[in-house]
Amino acid sequence: xxxxxxxxxxxLLVAIRGRTETANxxxxxxxxxxxxxxxxxxxxxxxxxxxPGVVWVVALFAAMLSTENLFHRDHDDGxxxxxxxxxxxxxxxxxxxxLAHWCxxxxxxxxxxxxxxxxxxxxxEIITILVxxxxxxxxxxxxxGGIGAALTAGLGRGGxxxxxxxxxxxxxxxxFGSGACYRVLDGATVTGPxxxxxxxxxxxxxLAPFAIGAALRGSQEY
Amino acid sequence: MNQxxxxxxxxxxxxxxxxxxxxxxxxxxxxxxxxxxxPNGSGKSTLLRCLAGLFxxxxxxxxxxxxxxxxxxxxxxxxxxxPFENLRWCAGxxxxxxxxxxxxxxxxxxxxxxxxxxxxxxxxxxxxxRAALARLCISKSRLWLLDEPMTSLDDxxxxxxxxxxxxxxxxGGGCICATHIKLEFPQTRVLELGA
Amino acid sequence: MGSIKDVFxxxxxPRFFYQGSSxxxxxxxxxxxxxLIIGSFWGLALAPPDKYQxxxxxxxxxxxxxxxxxEMVYFACAVAGFVYVVWRMxxxxxxxxxxxxxxxxxxLLSLASGILWGMPTWGTGWVWDMRTTSVLVLLFLFFxxxxxxxxxxxxxxxxxxxxxxxxxxVVNIPIIKYSVEWFTTLHQPASITFANEPTxxxxxxxxxxxxxxxxxxxxxxxxxxxxxxxxxxxxxxTEWVRDITRSMQR
Lengths: 222, 195, 250
Hints:
The complex is a heterotrimer. By secondary structure, chain A is mostly helical. Chain A has ten helices and no strands. In chain A, 53% of the residues are buried. Chain B is α/β, with parallel strands linked by helices. Chain B folds into two domains: 1-67 and 141-195, P-loop containing nucleotide triphosphate hydrolases (Rossmann fold); 76-140, no CATH class. Chain B has five helices and eight strands; from the N terminus they run βββαββαααβαββ. A five-stranded parallel sheet of chain B has the order 5-6-7-3-8, sandwiched between helices. In chain B, strands 2-1-4 form a three-stranded antiparallel sheet, covered by helices on one side. In chain B, a hairpin with a 2-residue loop joins strand 1 (6-15) and strand 2 (18-28). The longest helix of chain B has 16 residues, at 155-170. Chain B is globular, with a radius of gyration of 17 Å. By secondary structure, chain C is mainly alpha-helical. Chain C has a domain at 62-191. Chain C is 81% helix and 0% strand. Chain C has eight helices and no strands. Chain C has helices at residues 2-11, 14-46, 60-87, 90-122, 130-151, 155-187, 202-234, 239-249. Chains in contact: A-B, A-C, B-C. The A-C interface holds A 147, 151-152, 155, 158, 161, 164-165, 167-169, 171-172, 175-176, 179, 182-183, 192-193, 196, 200, 203, 207, 211, 214-215, 218-219, 221-222 and C 85, 137, 140-141, 143-144, 147-148, 151-154, 156-157, 160-161, 164-165, 167-169, 171-172, 175-176, 178-180, 182-183, 186.
């Protein structure tokens, strides 16, 4: 498996060592959800109706905010140089890093989402599809976010810039993800959007690491 | 027999409208140590980064025959991981199976036995450099590119670097080293930049 | 073969571009303005009013060309990005740097005219229909190109990163468009239909065509002019640019 395993193990270890920082996206997820409830109100008509969309948007923000750290520290401490020195393609190493990152950002959010759904009074029938679409969609968010993180690596605090670069590219994931949930609410079939999410996942797994690798090679040239 | 480890021709690099080097040529063969001298900002680091492939020069040809080791200003150590874990990761990057004993003896060699399991953020600047030096001990690369390896090192550690480079060259390796402290090896060559 | 390579090489030379393009700008401006005047006059005064929308449809003569041009400018940026990533041609980057703000302005123009058109026609300024939404996303993509360049201090590094971003964006455009289409068919309110659209009369179409071509030429002129400024800025340390500034000061 080459660098895939090496990077995956290392980044997971780093995430476990930096527990508090790792927990931030999850804390953000819960906090932002409750903010939404405070803003929208607990009206039993509105809240269940907006719930799937709100959970999806908040999950998307959590994913985006956490990708900022993906290459930042490695750039600052010089680890990134060592990765790039290796003349072998970056593809697998990058994929390993992203998988480790997803395991501590997207995956916990997807696992927590049933709780979150109950928390904001989402209808019960959407819970399965919510978890399913988040499991399919958050890796795509991580992969696309990785491109933005690689492009802004070494630019100091690039948080808002990252958002500007990445959010337009998140739109399809959001549409199909929350769209599938609403289809369940409306009693329609969800095959279409779910297949689309799978296609997006397959496409981004094959293409995003190339873009990330190219962007990282460029990030060294300051 | 005397195959060169790196051969550079016509290397030209401009940064911020300032010409750092113009049609520079250099060759390193096994056993060579090339020192880069020059004042701050004369392009020593940039040259090393070009040679390592981390920086794209404006023109010129760089022919590298072999794998290389690069040690820059930044130590390449994650501050949450211990020196041992960092070294293991670094060996793994090159898909090499280095036994834990070898890693531990490298850490012993740079004098960090007591700190091998401490997170790197507890180390001092000099200890960080020592932890980075451990990479030289396990290196199988024949060409070393070292950027100011003596920075913030005490006398013992400076002797250690000399020792490592001496061993490396006698084993048929080559080394390009940007430095302010002369290495004082027999037959080192010197390239002065910004002159 | 050799001569093609030679032309390619010279096209990539900022100096050659600067010296060769001074006449083009004027030509493109004149041609473009002429096209726009003819097309607009034709469209605004001569073309018959629409059966359903009356005269308000005439804003289409600004709206449609600017939306179309904005998209084309993004595609051109992506092509230039490809050229830069593969061949490191400096002029490709100068093109992206010049074209991105122009593209952003075109999307803004298209959105603004769309809102003005929507008011009398749909009774609301903003409708999340497929085309409006795609143009909005396009505006975001242009913002990204501009913001990333601003954020990176070193020009060649910025060039490379922006080129990659343009390529990533262009891969995503069809996907975004499809998803937005899917989204709008899901949420489309029934009151809005485009009944008269497929059967647009040719007498209405001709001025649109003329205006579109005119805008193409005009925008080409704007971009070339902006590229000339970009070239001077990039090459300000070189002798030939110093010669120009010296001769201007005299």
